[in-house]
Amino acid sequence: MRVFDELCPAPPLWRVPWPEIREAFAWVRRLSGVPQDAVHHAEGDVEVHTRMACEALAASPAWRARPAEERVRLFATVLMHDIAKPDCTQTGPDGRITAHGHSRRGDLMVRRVLWELGAPIAWREHVAALVRHHQVPFWALERPDLQQIAFRVSLLARNDDLVLLATADILGRICSDTEEVMENIALYEEYCAEQGCLDVPRVFPSDHARFWYFRKPGRDPDYAAYDDSRCSVTVLSGLPGVGKDHWIARNRPGLPVVSLDRLRAELGVSPTADQRPVAAAAHEEARVHLRAGRPFVWNATNVSRMLREQCTGLIAGYNGRIELVSLEAPPDVLRARNRAREAPVPDAVIDRLAGRWELPDPTEAHTVDWLTTAS
Fold this sequence. Notes:
- By secondary structure, this protein is of the alpha/beta class.
- The chain has two domains: 2-194, Orthogonal Bundle (Hypothetical protein af1432); 231-372, P-loop containing nucleotide triphosphate hydrolases (Rossmann fold, 3-Layer(aba) Sandwich).
- The protein contains 20 helices and seven strands.
- The strands form two sheets. Strands 4-5-3-6-7 form a five-stranded parallel beta sheet, sandwiched between helices.
- Strand 1 (90-91) and strand 2 form a beta hairpin.
- The model has no long low-confidence stretch (mean pLDDT 95).
């Protein structure tokens, strides 16, 4: 990512060029004046904290020892880790300032910003995953689902990157519990090392074992689950205009297709109307194929994990093998394709979907492919 390459601190001075960073990114300027809880952030507003966190990262010997491309990616992550605080910060009746939900919202915002900047998919998703989980090491030992979280981070990013991010975050603030939180971060690092997922993806006996590990809490990650799949179902995910129909014609010719666009047309439901009748019809059509053990394609936007779970949960209940295919295109290409459609989706709908866009990840299916359809 060229813009981050140019702004990332570099030897010999390792200077954080904050004026240039503010000039480059409107979302950094939005952090100015956003208040924080004085107990944990006595340093000032979110912009001050973000600058201090970037400076803490730049001073880190562990970060400086990384290859240049890894330093740039981590610097971008620290720069963006609180990107959603302006939208999540609230002052309660007791005067306490909170920013509940800013990690998850940050994941969505990072994806949108980096997509519009043209970042490579894997690079972007690495950053987004770290932003989503950046507070985990602070309270890791209190979480009953810590193992699943650590494994998920390892499949999307790296836990040693998460440790460096959390360290820069806590050192980039003025608070009374810095020493305690640093101990928690160290314990999280040690835990990930013991679990074999600190700087490499967690290894599972098979993709079927991985899939069911993340669907059943408490399951042994080393259990080699017997693959009793009856059929394979390809579930598509992507914003309107990415070329899902074209991809199906080229890659799954001859297979039945459960298409929400087709069902919308048959039912006379517009993209802006209540979609529940369309979803119900799609699920019933899918059940017919699943009962017969017949492979098929599920063609829908499926941009959020919650929407995909409605599909994947149904398929898993019939012992189906799930192949998730995420399609995307650059914003200008996507919008041009959409305008050229016989029935284009309103821009407002695309913007709303882009704001909820979560890429499928390896915890959701047997296989997950991230593909671009720009050409």
